[in-house]
Amino acid sequence: MREEEIRKFFELLPNGIYIRTLTPQGRHGFFTNVDTFIDALKVIPKDQPLYFNAHELTDIDFVPVNCFEPIQRGQGIKTENIRRLRYGILDFDPIHNTEVVNGEIVKRNLTKEENQQIVKEVDAVRKELLRDGFDSIGLINSGNGAYLVFPFRGVGNPSDSIKVFKRFAVILKKRYGLNTAQIDTKTIKVSQVFKLPGSLSTKGTSTKDNPFRYAEIVEEWNPKKSCWKAIKAYVENNAVDDLVFYSSHGPELDINACMKYCQKHYPVFRGENHDYRVRIDGKGIVRDMDLDSSDFASELRIHLRDVTGILNIDKRAIDDIITFLKDEAYQKEISTLASRVYYDVKCNTVYYDMCNHKDIIEISPTQICKKDKPLGMFDQKITDKEQVEYVPTPAKDLPMLLSKVANVTNNNLLILATFLCVCFLGNCFPTAALLITGPQGTSKSTLTRFVQRIVHPQKVSLLSLSAKIQDISIALSTRLLTCFDNASSVKADVADILCSAVTKGCFQTRKLYTTSDESLIVFKSIIVINGIDIISRRTDLMERCLCLELEPILPEKRKTEREVERGFEDALPKILGAIFDAIQQALAMEDVELKTLSRMADFEQWAVKFAISMGYSVEDYQEALKANKQNLIDAVSFGNPIIFAVVELMRYKDKAKFVFQEFYAKCYEILKTKATPNELSMFPKSASSLSRALGGMEENLKAFGITFSSENVGPNKEARLTNDGSVIPNAGASDIDGKLVYEAFKKEQK
What we know:
- The chain has a five-stranded antiparallel β-sheet, covered by helices on one side. The protein has a five-stranded antiparallel β-sheet with strand order 12-7-11-10-16, with helices on both faces.
- It is elongated, with a radius of gyration of 36 Å.
- A hairpin with a 7-residue loop joins strand 28 (505-510) and strand 29 (518-523).
- It is of the alpha+beta class.
- Helices cover 37% and strands 21% of the residues.
- Helix 10 (410-423) packs across helix 17 (618-637).
């Protein structure tokens, strides 16, 4: 006997316990004190299994008290001796517990691994019941199988109560088809006895591989909490007796009853795009499916087969039930259905989907914790990959951790760290796109994959930036983070789609197999793109971007792919922990007032908070952002034919004023003589197009000391320019004064 387990058990059932042996010359007794019981064990062999019943008895005159005595004929606990039930116990018996000995099938003790697998599966059932509203459920390893203990705190008539509990057991047995054990519903009765924790299990044969084991308490329960109301509600909500009626053709489904049953068994919800979803909950794993999917139809058919015993279920019955559930979903309020991350602005709480079909991470201003996945918050796609478990890490360590996987300058390291943190706020405001550029061999694709695995791990590799707008729209509509690999220049319509994705866009097309029905693809995604050069000279797109220019990797610092992967996998749990800590600190901060804001104002305000959580100042971040933006402006200007023409036009001039038609003609003449054919083809085709393009290039021109403005004068529009001489020579200066000419600027950029 194991005294420690016995004492723990007596504390959990403090009102007295009836204990007996099951040997032919059995002994029994009713014990109210654990110390007395320990003393009384001296008359019981050490390897003798003991069994208990701890219900409230009518009287105890028929059984010895606080001692063991032989059981006389007619003695022993019976149903009429039970006044009130104090618990319900489900006995999970092993399925594979026999072996052939001398040509006969005999019971055997399980191996340690088999026993632990049963305990693990039964514990999954226990956890799911707790999620269903049960207050406290105990788990006992009987030494071979397992028990689930449901405290009742005393209920009414024992015979009536045990009938309800037996129905509960039958429902669970049908609902949970465990691989290693099944519920023994035949032995459920008031006077049933069970293996006493601390007692040795000697069922079956014992060998070196299959040893006898002591029963032990795996999960304790609270005897002051009752599961009785939850059990009755569970039976009422999952009763299947009325799902079948009998006709001359045999048993058939009662469709109306099945609809009501499925309404309780399958929670449904809908998203903002009229997508109807249903939750499948089993063995601690939850899956959200489309109601119209073949997967759910198959799931529904299998479940109804299990609970009704009818094998041939008509397809029309399945269709009718699904239609009923869609009508039910339509009545629900629209759910969030976010991809991977949801920031609840009202509650100031961030939720991150681990994509393991059960857990989310909840981050509030006061704590970071793991919780069960709520209904109707996340839309997990088949391509989503499970995230690793995070390791709690201070936010200040994030830049250092990223420096091990990203070959960038310190300023850009801060930009990358804050960008990653902002990604974990989801799409609640426009988030800057991230461009990763650099010459060949700078690990651009590797860093892009790492960003993807930190924010939104996916089973698919990085995407190519297709020229088909519809394909890009579909990709952007299904992901929190969309990563494009090895992109070069993009056409104007692709640049427009990428701009729209930052704020929220919509692509309209004709629905397949129809002539007039339209289909809308709504998309909003955080974008990461890598390539040797920036993908566009369009300022409307570039103003929505951050740019990380990777430095060439020195030969002595190069590593094998395996070394790089191992380093990242080691750092990833800590990177996630540091990001979560930064988010918690940022959520607790008041808004930071900034003197100036960029076009991505919300992004910048949150990025500043994250920088502060890592130990940087507001000025540190804004200087890093300013430098990043200036480098991007320079990169956009390099190779832009409009900038080329204006710079050449303003060389050796302080001021200039042109009617736009004249201005356009002069710029075009410059390009015809000095620009490449490709640059000339990118130049606007009319004066009005040039006017619109220049409206977004003020910052680019300022990089060359040129200020541009336009004004309507009578019927004409005038272009007015000034050159402060800080970059290119103005009036009275010459090239030898050290001022940059455009060709020198190009050479410097290269």
